[in-house]
Amino acid sequence: MAETMTIHLKVWRQAGPDADGRLVDYTLDSVNSDMSFLEMLDVLNEDLIKQGEDPVEFDNDCREGICGSCGLIVGGIAHGPMKATAICQLHMRHYNDGDTIVVEPFRAEAFPIVKDLVVDRAAFDRIIAAGGYVSVSTGGAPDANAIPVPKDDADEAFDFAACIGCGACVASCPNSSASLFTGAKIAHLADMPQGKVERKRRVVRMVDQMEAEGFGDCSNHGECEAVCPKGISIDAIAKMRREYVRALFG
Amino acid sequence: MANKDNNGKPGLWSAMTSPIGKKLLTGLTGLGWVLFVILHMAGNLGYFGAGEAYNEYTEALMSLGPLLYLIETLLVAGLVIHVVAGVNIYLGKRRARKQGYEQYESAGRPSRQSLSSRSMIVTGIVLLVFLVIHINTFKFGPGIAEGYAVTVGGEEIRDLKRLVTEKFQNPLYAFGYTGVMLLLGFHLRHGIWSAFQSLGAMNRRLTPLVYAVGTVLAIGIVLGFLVLPLYIFFAA
Amino acid sequence: MSLDSNIPSGPLHEKWQNYLDRTKLVNPANKRKYTVIVVGTGLAGGSAAASLAELGYNVKAFCIQDSPRRAHSIAAQGGINAAKNYPHDGDTIWRLFYDTVKGGDYRSREANVYRLATISNNIIDQCVAQGVPFAREYGGLLANRSFGGAQVSRTFYARGQTGQQLLLGAYQALERQVDAGKVEMLPRREMLDLVVVDGRARGIITRNLVTGELERHAGDAVLLCTGGYGNAYFLSTNAKNSNVTAAWRCHRRGAYFANPCFTQIHPTCIPVSGHYQSKLTLMSESLRNDGRVWVPQDSSDDRPANQIPEGERDYYLERRYPSFGNLVPRDVASRAAKQVCDAGRGVGATGQAVYLDFADAIGRLGKSTIEERYGNLFEMYERITGENPYEVPMRIYPAVHYTMGGLWVDYDLMSTIPGLFVLGEANFSDHGANRLGASALMQGLADGYFVISATLGNYIASMEDDSLNASDTAFDEPEKAARDRIERLLGVGGSKTVTEYHRELGRIMWDQVGMSRSKDGLEEALSSIRKLREEYWNNVLVPGRKDTLNKNLEFAGRVADFLELGELMAQDALQREESCGAHFREEYQTAEGEALRRDDDFSYVAAWEFSGDLSAPNLHKEELDFEAVELTTRSYK
Ligand SMILES: Cc1cc2nc3c(=O)[nH]c(=O)nc-3n(C[C@H](O)[C@H](O)[C@H](O)COP(=O)(O)OP(=O)(O)OC[C@H]3O[C@@H](n4cnc5c(N)ncnc54)[C@H](O)[C@@H]3O)c2cc1C
Ligand code: HEM
Ligand code: HEM
Ligand code: SF4
Ligand code: F3S
Ligand code: FES
């Protein structure tokens, strides 16, 4: 049953990319336990607007865990405390009356802050542009059933392809590494016969781009997998390394 | 910028300085050192052998001649690469997030983040300092010329056993070593499984197993090393 | 102006081939002289931008989100249809065509739908070649399932994330062209106006959502791929940023808006839990294969579901539609749910929900079978509601899901403004009065990958070569208009927030222009919307500044447009004095309460022209001729 509770928030406020930011305290005294976390922020924003203050900016769109727009550090953890859950899917019933919750943006030099909790994740697009595709122009494709794909391969490819590009892996990684994101795309395509043709060029270019964007290297902390809303395994990273070795020596 | 003309094969240098290459290097060199450390530990346990077994064993090692030089060269080169890559990764990490979080927590399993994974650079640097002192103390320490000698089968060989015994009777050495060995354990607890992951040898099924074996191995290595100084200090 | 749908000559199944045979081509070397503006990077826009760039055009692509990969198409779950007939169960292009026309309750254009069915197979080929991980059989071939009551299995899927995988395929193709320098991708941009020069679409005005700057972009054609307008209802299954602004601005510049009242309401969504509700979540229709829908017989019965004895439950779908039972089409199921809730028999705290009960199925098939079939849906339900559907029945309620209406386009996907093409959910073209499951993805990709490359070429080839610069004075007026609007919104300084107004509009739309409509209700809606719109411009409170990221300001502009569109939707519903597909007029029903279509009078597309006066738009009718199919009445008894 729904109950009402008081929640204390400490929210990172930052007026712009170069402005200084800080945590600001807010208290909401009628948070419904059936609300989603983002709906709670909506309520906060409605209050702020009425008080003549600027609302807290945060990215969101689908609010069902698939578009990858949302992304906050909640209670020190990317996407909050629940496993395999984007922050837009977290509901307030997992908190208790009187809790204090710290809300910060994803932090990494490669993800500069735009405003408040909004960051710029364009680096991810550039990593994909460097090779995260199969080069087939529209029109020339053979019949879809011309190349059988073993079900296990297709299933594994899907596990990696499920990445929503949210950036939580980077945000939670002590090294700010984009290895899980990059590895997931490399692994997805390496698992499919369609992707195998360009596998060498793909891995080398994507890894180069990842480095050029200023992400850190991966020290195998494995934090990324634990926060990934799609539970993507760091097998993707091992696979990316194998692909790289293959490109080098194969 | 991604190299536009790149059609696959990277150059060796650019490959080895890439994010993947750096980890291949730390992993390979790290594992090489793990192998050395295990053998070294086993050799050390020869101290408990009868008579001059320990001194004879080290003498045998010394007489390997060129082979020994080769191994030593590999170790030194490996260490240099390991340290350079490790420090480079650490500096990259520092650059990649200049402003840290006000609050940061690990999400727990399946995360492999731990005190030991976070402190690789610290434990590593301590190990580096240790190695300098350590080799200076023992390898380049007093030998036959300084009177640390025994005669075995009519031949005079270095009495390393005496040197070791004397050093570890000193609490500074005994406890200093104990501390460093514990840090080595930390380095290896994350290091062993991590090296396999860096080499791309892991997958979902293997990871938990290798992680567990790595932890046990790390503890084993620490204990194996520790018996000697602690035995000498307390019992001898 | 008369509406010429430009349908090619010849028998139905040869029209598209005839078109291709005769269409004008653009010299490959000339293509790079042309710039195509693509607004929106969902399935339609992403695939169009990639394909046109591959052909050599210079493409400028825009989207609201921070990355083209996040367009609303990403959320589609169920699947995509194609007439491959891999399962060998008798499917053909004709059948897919026929089902789509029939499903649309005979309010779509035959020639377009036939082309769609023809192209459907190429889409699957293309997506597989891109590496899209569709579900497969153990033999390695593609798996199919049946969807939305079709008698054949023609739906291709990628777990419950088909839209995501298809969009990522298009997105990756797009990024490949970005890397090749053929696409300039401009994310976090909102199109605020269309620039029309000499009667042709030649550019757009966008707002940079980060800096607030207004930007001018010139091109030789503009492709609008901006998705549907379901958010006019405030609560819908659409993503928060889905909007009508781009389409509405084009409408105000002369593009006709067709069938705006055709809105699909999906029966199986998670009900509203409270006032703070920000959007609704869809659950796959497949749940109705095993779940039984019911409400208590007695409206005063407020016992927990499990304590209500069998005899006091009303399995109303099984009762009313004995042969289809819980599997009646979306619109029928939705309307029936509304009727029982209106009669006070709804369940849950708000009374706006019905039960979807799996107890029988669990008893019959075992919990593990149910878990296998619906495990992820049950989990999603529990995540949102905190209730375990293995133990207590789910509560469901219909929600706005898709808009069949949109900008009017001819066979070439060109609107009434030459050079303005409209693709995907933003156009009205293929689904008539009701869309079948798994056909929106098909349409978006057909438009973007295969249709536009031919039809745009045809247009460009006949264009005179007159390059236009964005500094041209033709851009001054639209830019100023956009700036004035923003300043006006910020300047009102009233007392109610944008969300409050949006919610109010949503309530009017849902109550009067929703699942069931009546003359009185629609007339009331017209006057309430007008009043609300007037109040909005005098009392809305938009915080912040125009020269920074300011999502409230973005929403303020979108809600302002919804307030205008809402009125047109009501007007359209009012003029359509029949019940067809998703449009149900209470005055036009059979004695048993079923929809009554009036083919003699309403077999047309209602295309509305902006007249300058929102309350008096001009109606143009495109008569629909059915040569190939025979009009029948649906029956699910
Ligand atoms: C929950 C859900 C499930 C669905 N499941 C299915 C299914 O299983 N099968 C099926 O066939 N269909 C399904 N649909 C319908 C289908 O997903 C959509 O109709 C389709 O994806 C629309 O694609 P689109 O490319 O036309 O538009 P969208 O994907 O909505 O893209 C719109 C694009 O336009 C941009 N844009 C909008 N306005 C502006 C502006 N003013 N300026 C700049 N850019 C702008 C946006 O940023 C975005 O990039 C589902 C829909 C929903 C809501
Ligand atoms: C002497 C100084 C040393 C330093 C400065 C050092 C530093 C480091 C650092 C920083 C890492 C982490 C690399 C990363 O973040 O990805 C690392 C990894 C590792 N170290 Fe060391 N180390 C040293 C010595 C040793 C020794 C003596 C051993 C073995 C006995 C060892 C074994 C390993 C292993 C196995 C790894 C894991 C490699 C990987 O993840 O790929 N290191 N070291
Ligand atoms: C209690 C712990 C240890 C003891 C008692 C010990 C003892 C010794 C001794 C006696 C030598 C001299 C051998 C010779 O000159 O022939 C030596 C050499 C060496 N030790 Fe240790 N050691 C210990 C731990 C370590 C550790 C943890 C490391 C590495 C991380 C290490 C690395 C080395 C190296 C590299 C040499 C030089 C080998 C060579 O070049 O021949 N030792 N050690
Ligand atoms: S790998 Fe996971 S955490 Fe990283 S971007 Fe993809 S979905 Fe987000
Ligand atoms: S947390 Fe970071 S260090 Fe590697 S395993 Fe994940 S990217
Ligand atoms: S808002 Fe789309 S994933 Fe959270």
What does this protein structure show overall?
The complex is a heterotrimer of chains A (250), B (236) and C (637). Chain A has helices at 37-50, 122-129, 151-161, 168-172, 179-191, 193-196, 199-212, 223-227, 235-249; strands at 4-14, 21-32, 73-74, 77-78, 100-104, 113-115, 118-119. Chain A has 250 residues and is α+β, with helices and mostly antiparallel strands. A five-stranded mixed sheet of chain A has the order 2-1-5-3-4. In chain A, strands 6-7 form a two-stranded antiparallel ribbon. The longest helix of chain A is centred in the last third of the chain and has 15 residues, at 235-249. Helices cover 68% and strands 3% of the residues of chain B. In chain B, α2 packs across α4 and α2 (19-44) packs parallel to α9. Chain B is globular, with a radius of gyration of 21 Å. At the A-C interface, α1, α2, α3 and α5 of A face α3, α5, α6, α11 and α12 of C. The complex binds flavin-adenine dinucleotide (FAD), protoporphyrin IX containing FE (2 copies), iron/sulfur cluster (SF4), FE3-S4 cluster and FE2/S2 (inorganic) cluster (FES). One protoporphyrin IX containing FE (HEM) binds next to α2, α4, α6 and α8 of chain B.
In N-to-C order, the SSE pattern of chain A is: EEHEEEEEHHHHHHHH
Strand count, sense and barrel status of the largest sheet of chain B are:
2 strands, antiparallel
Strand order of the largest sheet of chain B: 1-2
Order of helices and strands of chain B: HHHHHHEEHHH
Give the largest interface: A-C, 81 and 80 residues
Q: Termini separation of chain B (Å)?
A: 63 Å
Number of helical elements of chain B: 9
Q: What order do the strands of the largest sheet of chain A run in, or round the barrel if closed?
A: 2-1-5-3-4
Global mean pLDDT of chain A: 96
Structural class of chain A: alpha+beta
